Amino acid sequence: MKKKQSVSPPRIPQWILSRLLPRDDEPYLRGDFDEIYSFVYEDKGRLSADIWYWKQVVVSLPQILIHPFIWSVIMFKNYLKMTLRNLKKHKGYSFLNIAGLSVGLACFIMVLLFVQYEFRYEKHHVNAERIYRLIVEQNLGDRVFRSAYSPVPLAETLSRDLPEVEEFTRLFPRGRILVSYGDRHFYEDGMNFVDPGVLQMFSFPLIKGDPDTVLAHKHSAVITEEIADKYFGREDPIGKTLSLDFVVSTDVTVTGVIKNHPRTTNIAPDILVHVKTIEDLMPNSEQFFQNWISQQIQSYIMLPDDHSVPDMEQKIMGIFSQHIRDDDRRELKLEQLARSHLYSMGDEPGLIRTLAIFLACGILVLVVACINFMNLSTARSANRAKEVGLRKVVGAGRRQLIRQFMGESLVYALISLVFAVVLALAAIPVLNQLTGQFVSPSDLGSSSIILVLLAATIFTGLTSGSYPALLLSGLQPSSVLRGRLTRGARGTLFRKVLVVAQFSISIILIICTMVIGRQLSFIHSKDLGFQKEQIVVVRNQSGEPAGNLEPLRTALKQNPRILGVAGSLQLPSSIGMYNNVTWEGAKEGEKIELIHNTVDYDFLDTYGIKLLKGRNFSPEFPSDVRSGRDLQSAGAVILNEEAVRRFGWTEPLGKKVIQTYGDERIIFTVIGVINDFHFQSLRQAIEPMNLFLSTEDNRYVSIRLQGEDIPGTLAFIEKTWKRLYPELPIEHFFLDSMLERRYRSEERQRELFGYLSGLAVFIACLGLFGLAAYAAEKRTKEIGIRKVLGASTSAVVVLLSREFVFWVLAANILAWPIAFLAMDRWLQGFAYRIGMFSQIGWFILAAVLSLAIALITVGFQAIKAALADPIRSLRYE
Amino acid sequence: MNKYLTRKEEMILLTVFRLGDTAGLVKVREKLKYLTGHKWSVGNVYVTLDRLTRLGFLQSAVGEPSARRGGKAVKHYFLTAQGKEELVELKRVHDRLWEGLLGLAAED
Question: Residue A344: what are its φ and ψ, rounded to 5°?
Answer without folding.
Answer: -55, 135
